[in-house]
Amino acid sequence: MSDPVASGAGGGLGRRPPSLVGPLVLIALGLLCLLTNLGVLSPRVWDTLWRLWPFALIALGVEVLVGWRTPWGRLAVLGVFVVAAVVGVWWTVRTPGVAGLVDHPVRVAVPTGTRQAELTLRSGVSQLDLRAGPGGDLVSGQVQTARNERLTNEFGQRGETAVVRVAMSGSSSVSFTGQNTPRWTLALTPALPWTLNVSTGVGRAAPDLRTLRVANLTLAGGVGETTVTLPARGEPRADLRGGGGALTVRLPAGLAARVVANTGLGAVEVTLPATRDGDTYVIGHPDTSPDRAEVRVAGGVGRVRIEGVR
Questions:
Q1: What is the pLDDT of residue 98?
Q2: Is 2 inside any structural domain?
Q3: Taking Cα atoms as reference points, which of 76, 72, 75, 43 lies closest to residue 200?
Q4: Element (H, E) at 87
Q5: What's the Cα-to-Cα distance from 212 to each of 7, 121, 244, rounded to whole Å?
Q6: Do 191 and 289 fall within a single domain?
Q7: What integer pLDDT is reported at residue 124 of this predicted model?
């Protein structure tokens, strides 16, 4: 006599229905990614999602306890996700971003005897705008922080190198619409060669370095869209790591480049005339041109695009 459990007879005894938690989490993440890319939701929504992830554990626990035994259990799992959505909306309404934004002016004069400069920048949930300034100050601009965020603004000297560190720490209130996203607007002097270490958090970042003298650039993208314009002159070296969003690298006219792109789940799109050898794209004549860049791109889960800009 065959075993009804082993053979699948007897109404499927012992056969557990498939889990609801995994598919629901994937659907929710997919919808959030889509709405964020379309601009309907702010990338800051991921900060709220990070706060609410324990709801997934609660839903999984409910399903393990009662979800596979009765349809009411599955309704309970769906109820947990509904409660998570309600809590997320309540959190947003309860902590409006506009009221919590604080302006922090940033200004560092050029020290006497400085021949080069180094900037370490760690933004949180923000829109980052980094570009060349008029040249009177080493660094100037303004940084906004939301409630519960702390800003570190430090300056030091290492030999002939001026060292600046601007970093955010702590958690922030979140707006789903993007209207209350803190803005980081910083300008750097074009008179000195720079070493830049930039790490973005959640949001949009647009470093425009075309008129700056940058010897080395390290950029770690976060969640959101990052567009970096490389310097038009010199021999910059750039190490760019994409995160959870699209990464666009812009090459000014006349800048030759050797780009090595090792992407993760995203695709690489090169809109400039280039010679390809595996993961290496050669644009112009980087071996002989006076203005040439060595670029390494490590993609995350988003698209990587290499394009030109005037």
A1: 42
A2: no
A3: 43
A4: helix 71-94
A5: 71, 16, 27
A6: yes
A7: 79
Tokens representing residue 6 in the block: 């082993």
State the residue for tokens 């309404």: 93
Does residue 81 sit in the same domain as residue 144? Answer: no
Q: What string of DSSP letters covers 236-285?
A: -EEEEE--SS-EEEEEETT-EEEEEEE-SSS-EEE-S--EEETTEEEES-
- 24 and 157 within one domain: no
> 45 and 114 share a domain?
no
What single letter denotes the amino acid at residue 163?
A: V
The pLDDT of residue 105? 93
Q: What is the pLDDT of residue 125?
A: 76
Q: Which domain holds residue 134?
A: 102-309
Cα separation values, 46 from 49, 87, 164, Å: 5, 14, 29
- Contact between 141 and 185 (Cβ < 8 Å): yes
Q: Look at residues 62, 94, 126 and tell me which one is the last residue of a structural domain.
A: 94
287: CB partners within 8 A, 6+ apart: none
pLDDT at site 253? 94
pLDDT at 245: 75
154-188-157 Cα angle (round to 5) = 40
Q: DSSP letter at 113? A: T
Check if the beta carbon of residue 128 is closer than 8 Å to that of residue 204: yes
Query: Amino acid identity of 196?
Result: L
Please give the average pLDDT of every successive group of 10 residues along the chain, which has 310 residues.
Answer: 45 53 68 62 60 64 62 65 62 50 90 94 89 91 84 93 90 50 92 95 89 96 87 96 84 96 80 94 96 90 86
CB atoms within 10 A of CB 163: 16
Number of domains in the chain: 2
- Count the residues in the chain: 310
